[in-house]
Amino acid sequence: MATRRKIPLRKCVATGEMKPKKEMVRIVRSKEGEISIDPTGKKSGRGAYLSKDKDAILLAKKKNILASHLEASVSDEIYDELIKLVERENISK
């Protein structure tokens, strides 16, 4: 009998959906207050997960969800990077 592996789920801070961790992108705030995208999901610091979906990213930007979740200001460049990352992944599929 084969054992099934448990798939880790994470909640999108913008949409509230629970999805597999691999379908999400992690944004992290370091102890120094620096905000960055964490594609590996292993950087230390306070993290927030967003769906790899352009609409979720735009919703988070519009409502300033990431800034309130990470308790730090998030620049537009982070949102632009996230959108580029999602578009690159959609092209490669």
What does the model show?
InterPro entries: YlxR (IPR037465), YlxR-like_sf (IPR035931), YlxR_dom (IPR007393). Pfam families: YlxR. This protein has 93 residues and is of the alpha+beta class. It has one domain (9-92): Hypothetical Cytosolic Protein, Chain: A (2-Layer Sandwich). It is built from 3 helices and 5 strands, in the order βββββααα. The protein has helices spanning 54-63, 65-70, 76-92, and strands at residues 9-11, 18-20, 24-29, 35-38, 46-51. The chain has a 3-stranded antiparallel β-sheet. Strands 1-2 form a two-stranded antiparallel sheet. Helix 1 packs antiparallel against helix 3 (76-92). It is globular. It starts with 8 loop residues before the first strand and ends with a helix. The model has no long low-confidence stretch (mean pLDDT 92).
Mean model confidence by pLDDT: 92
For the biggest sheet, the summary is: 3 strands, antiparallel
**CATH class categorisation:** Alpha Beta
How many independent structural domains?
A: 1
Strand order of the largest sheet: 4-3-5
Helix content: 25-40%
CATH architecture: 2-Layer Sandwich
Total count of helical runs of at least 4 residues: 3
Gyration radius, rounded: 14 Å
Q: Topology as H/E string?
A: EEEEEHHH
Question: Strand pairing plus helix content: what structural class?
Answer: alpha+beta
Topology, number of strands: 5
Low-confidence stretches: none
Overall geometric form: globular
Enter the CATH topology name: Hypothetical Cytosolic Protein, Chain: A
Beta-strand level of the residues, as a percent range? 15-25%
Cα end-to-end separation: 33 Å
CATH superfamily: YlxR-like
